[in-house]
Amino acid sequence: MGQLKAKDYKSGVKPIWCPGCGDYAVLNALTKAFAGLEIPHEEIVVASGIGCSSRFPAFIKTYGFHGVHGRPLPLATGIKLGNPDLTVVAVGGDGDGFSIGGGHMPHAARRNIDITYIVMDNSIYGMTKGQPSPTSPTGMHRKAAPYGTQETPLNPIMMALSYNASFVARCFSNKLKEMTDIIMQAIQHPGFAFIQVLSPCITFNDTYAHYREITQLIPEDHDTSDLAAALQLALVTDTQYLGVFYHDKERLGYCERVRMVQEAAPKMSLDAIIENYKR
Asked: CA-to-CA distance for 44 and 33, rounded, in angstroms?
């Protein structure tokens, strides 16, 4: 078999996203990343929750698990611990990840589980016809919020950094090359890698023009090992910085820690373990 190309990682199932949805670009970037890293199909698992973006596993020719709402991180954690040799990617949207699934992200970060978590953030609930989401701007008017949403939007980058995730980045779906490069870095990172992708919903929240105006690359002199500097960049809201905010290359991944415990623990048969608990 020759070198794999991005198209080799796409299944025969055609995506059913609306034409112009940013998620198409994320699909292209992820398959390009797999091809660039030359990862065999059978060594990849993509886990997802519920939502437009969570249909991802059907469109990829790898192993996949389309789970329940807000649970891609527990799924991905179990898969990775079950077989640490796999490349595991969790995908979802802002509603899936920051609302019903919001409680899972701090624990994935503190464990530093060796997975990549891509959140396609369109600041709207697209599959259920356009309700404001946890990242929708204050004052957004929709049918489900006729007087404007009154909540303050979450800051996903600030959240990930405050949870001490060991790799934190932001991409814009309109910048395919940069997004592909960052996904490749995230997959190679031996720990929990979080990527927020600004992925506009062309039907209910078309923010392409807005993001083209307010996004810019993180300054070249930014030190990605400096958490305080990353937090300062995350606090800027009138500009949405794109790139790697933080990258801790020294922290051990959770699978490595578990392996060390397994090696240190006494080797006992199942019968011996049962007898030990009878005492």
From this structure: 12
The phi and psi torsions of 44 (rounded to 5 degrees) equal: -120, 140
**Under 8 Å between Cβ of 263 and 256:** no
Q: What CA–CA distance (Å, rounded) separates 262 from 268?
A: 11
Single-letter amino acid, residue 137 = P
**Which of 155, 76, 67 is closest to 108 using CA atoms?**
76
What mean pLDDT do residues 7-18 have? Answer: 94
Residue spans of alpha helices (H) in 13-150? 23-37, 56-59, 72-82, 94-95, 105-111
Q: CB-based burial of residue 28 (10 Å sphere; 0-12 exposed, 13-18 middle, 19+ buried)?
A: middle
- 19-69 per-position pLDDT tens digit: 999 999 999 999 999 999 999 999 999 999 999 999 999 999 999 999 998
pLDDT given at position 170: 98
Tokens 């929990």 appear where? 192
**pLDDT class of 2 with cuts at 50, 70, 90:** low
**CATH 3.40.50.970 assigned to 17-252:** yes
